[in-house]
Write a structure and sequence with these properties.
This protein is mainly α. The chain has a single domain, classed as ABC transporter involved in vitamin B12 uptake, BtuC, CATH 1.10.3470. The protein has 14 helices and two strands.
Length: 312
């Protein structure tokens, strides 16, 4: 029993660390998709956030500036996605996949000169009093600043989406853009704004990987986390609080695999590595039909371009 408790505590602590980049990615995508714009470009956004944040940190030593640069890089790709999907009404799945390929290519090309280089990073910060709580303190209050910021983002985003006028506008545009337009809401401006904002928040998840989870740039360091985040948005039913639990669940599966390897468990390594992606496939299978997606809370016009001409 004395050996099990430390194992569980440190596994849960690792789950929080591993789940944080997913959490930022999912929170950003919730904002984008609540407006009715589907975004399958999370992998590319995270990679661009990771490399741009890392380069800024390496060049300036300023971690705050590094996060700002990562968000601006994500916003730039988000603007591209918004232009094609909202203004040109290109198929949103195709545009999202193009963003993933573009982000992957940019990060690979830009990061060639930074492979193996170490930059300034976020280090763990113990929160006084809270970190002294048995077990809970170790699990939740001995992390880097970005983890604590993610804690704050979840309730703030939930309150914004469900309890504010602007959140109601966001949901209205995603559910019934024609009705929102008839009430004087600029559907295109709202979708542009939340697509760009959501992509910038998603990029923080990538920056976390290169500035907190690791301390160096590694090509394709997201390792498919963007695709896991897409499944997590469905798993969380576009709800920020559920996203928190979902991100830590997937992070826990990843952490458990590493912990079992560390203690020499007689389980094939490849099986442990595939667990998060296996869980992703299961989620996607159960939420693949349009009827089921609507039943679990998907915005009614998700993936459907809006046109005033077609309305009239």
């Amino acid at each position: 029993m004395s050996d099990i408790v430390p194992f569980v505590v440190f596994t849960l602590q690792a789950a929080v660390r591993a789940g944080t980049p997913l959490l930022f990615a999912v929170l950003g995508d919730i904002l984008t998709e609540r407006s009715g714009v589907m975004n399958l470009g999370i992998e590319g956004l995270m990679l661009v956030g990771a490399i741009s944040g890392f380069v800024a940190s390496y060049s300036t030593g300023n971690l705050f500036l590094a996060i700002v640069v990562a968000m601006l890089a994500g916003a730039a790709l988000g603007l591209v996605h918004a232009f094609f999907t909202i203004s040109l009404r290109v198929n949103q799945i195709v545009s999202g996949l193009a963003i993933t390929m573009l982000g992957t290519g940019i990060s690979g090309l830009w990061g060639k000169g930074y492979v193996g280089v170490v930059a300034q990073r976020f280090t763990p910060m113990r929160i006084p009093l809270l970190s002294d709580i048995p077990y809970i303190g170790t699990i939740f209050f001995n992390h880097s600043l970005l983890v604590y910021i993610s804690y704050i983002c979840v309730p703030l985003l939930w309150l914004f989406v469900y309890k504010t006028k602007y959140g109601m506008t966001l949901r209205a545009v995603g559910e019934a853009p024609e009705a929102a337009d008839s009430r004087g809401i600029n559907v295109f401006a709202v979708r542009y704004f939340y697509t760009v904002l959501g992509c910038s928040i998603t990029a923080i998840g990538g920056a976390y990987l290169s500035l907190a989870y690791n301390s160096m740039w590694i090509e394709n360091m997201t390792a498919g986390r963007g695709w896991i985040a897409i499944a997590l948005v469905l798993f969380a039913t576009w709800d920020p609080v559920k996203a928190l639990f979902g991100a830590y669940l997937f992070g826990g599966v990843t952490a458990l695999g590493f912990r079992l390897q560390a203690i020499g468990a007689d389980i094939p390594t490849d099986f442990l590595r595939m667990l998060p992606y296996l869980l992703t496939v299961v989620v996607l299978i159960f939420t693949s039909t349009e009827k089921l997606r609507l039943r679990v809370g998907a915005p009614a016009t998700l993936g459907i371009p809006y046109s005033r001409e077609e309305k009239t």
